[in-house]
Design goal:
This protein has 164 residues and is of the alpha+beta class. The protein is built from three helices and eight strands, in the order αβαβββββββα. The strands form two sheets. Strands 1, 2, 3, 6 and 8 form a five-stranded antiparallel sheet that branches. Strands 5-4-7 form a three-stranded antiparallel sheet, with no helix packed on it. β4 and β5 form a beta hairpin. Pfam families: 2OG-FeII_Oxy_3. One of its GO terms (molecular function) is L-ascorbic acid binding. This is Fe2OG dioxygenase domain-containing protein.
């Protein structure tokens, strides 16, 4: 995001930090883990519009992928939808691919909806193409490895936080 020269207010940083903390607690509760064992991993906002096309095999949306393979550190992934399908955009369903004995399942994006899943081979997934509008979500991942957590660059960088 450096190239966009975004500056975040302290209030925005506090809201972001609070959301990440609450997602961590939800993941711990859902998977029966001690929250202290979950370390923050990468967190990013996705902003997908209808004009985006997959350019490489590693485009993180339209090809089926496994987050642990895609990113290398994720143990658990959460998605917090920031807007709603059919109100703000069309398409963009999150699809868990059929795997083993499970069948494919799609999640309809709705503002405020949280999706949480383990990030390894048991949950291959993709996002269907957005055909109109802009789909926005916050992806927050967690790891159980302190070493992996320490390898993740902090966000936002102090240089991106507006003073005052």
């Amino acid at each position: 995001m450096d190239f966009k020269s975004l500056k975040f207010t302290q209030k925005q940083v506090e809201a972001y930090t609070s959301v990440r903390r609450l997602l961590r607690l939800q993941v711990a509760e859902f998977f029966g883990l001690d929250p202290e064992t979950l370390q923050h991993d990468m967190t990013f906002f996705s902003h997908i519009n209808g004009s985006k096309t997959a350019r490489t095999l590693h485009d993180e949306y339209w090809h089926s992928h496994i987050d642990t393979e895609q990113y290398g550190t994720f143990a658990f992934t959460t998605l917090l939808y920031l807007n709603s399908q059919d109100e703000d955009f069309h398409g963009g369903e999150f699809v868990f691919e059929a795997h083993g004995t499970s069948s494919a399942a799609a999640v309809e994006p709705r503002a405020g909806r949280v999706v949480a899943f383990s990030s390894d081979a048991e949950n291959p997934h993709k996002v269907l193409k957005v055909t109109k509008g802009i789909r926005m979500a916050l992806t927050a991942a967690f790891t159980c490895s302190t070493e992996k957590a320490l390898s993740i660059e902090a966000f936002p960088k102090p240089s991106l936080v507006a003073s005052g």
